[in-house]
Amino acid sequence: MSALISTAWSWAVGRVHVGERWLIDGKRAVYGASVARIIYGLVIVLFVIANFARRNYLWGAASGWVKPIQSFTTWTAPFTFYSSSDPEWLFTLKFLLLGVVGLALLLGWHSRIAAIVTLFLYISLVSTNPVATDQTDNALRIILFYFVFADMSVHWSLDARRRRRRAEKGRARRRILPEWFPNILHNGAIIAVALQIFIIYVVAGLSKVKGSQWQDGTAVYYPLHLDSLSPWPALSHLLVSNSILVNIVTYFAVFIQLFFPFLLLARWTRVIALLGIVGMHVGIGILMGLPLFSMAMMAADGIFIRDATYARVERYVGDTTVPWLRRVFGRRRPGPHRAARDEPVDAEPESVTVAS
Q1: Does residue 279 register a pLDDT over 90?
Q2: DSSP string, 25-50
Q3: Among 156, 186, 269, 283, which residue is least crowded by beta carbons within 10 Å?
Q4: How much is the pTM?
Q5: Which DSSP category does 228 fall into?
Q6: By the 8 A CB rule, do 238 and 262 touch?
């Protein structure tokens, strides 16, 4: 009995040490965090573009119809940057500011500051009209809050480019905090995002299991007949016209959400989980007209893809795309003035045959 207890204790201590090294020795899922930064920035930019024409009706001077329900919002100061009492020109500038900081987040320019400002402005805007947005705002502001504590600029960002140039010039910024502290902060944020995703999917799966329409496999049939959730009626009718396909999609949505955390435990089931959840969100984005919500959720799902996988894809894209771009843009035919300017001074003249 004592040998069994000793073995169990040794195994537990070993697991604790593995977890400690995972948390402290380096930053995890840095590629996934960078992908999330790009997608969230893109979501904000698309949000501003899509709602620019009706900004005043939804949140600006013409949004008086919202006042009876504004008291239901729980967001107060300091999230009062946007106000329907602002002049139209001022509200337009504030609205465009959200798009600018979203673009900064997308490009990875001072990423952490851009993420904080983006989150603040987005909450300030959507809180003034509780019925103007869909579930995009909930998913984005909850998950982006955790990502604020992560390092989202390790890859494909202007911040990474600036750090690389400083290092090449020998002007790398001196560390103030010990290296383990930002590692813990980043990895803790990744864990928080993962737990939040698990909660969202499992709770959604459990709520579906209780519904009779999900149990009989017909739940997907009904929302696709609503005009507000059918941007492509012909495509929606094509899906719901096949009862077997409706059953498969309905049960698959329940399965992939309910068992998503467990499918991540093994490598081959992880592939099934990620492809399945991405397929579900693509279907929601296209068939139900919720593209920004789907993008926000898929951005968070990206942390479950290993950094080694991202690195292989990056190398493959670089090996195939960069040479092609160089062939296309690097072989511009010089004009006569440029050719004359670029010709070496001591170039030998072309051989000329002289008749004797």
Answers
A1: yes
A2: SS--SHHHHHHHHHHHHHHHHHHHHH
A3: 269
A4: 0.86
A5: G
A6: no
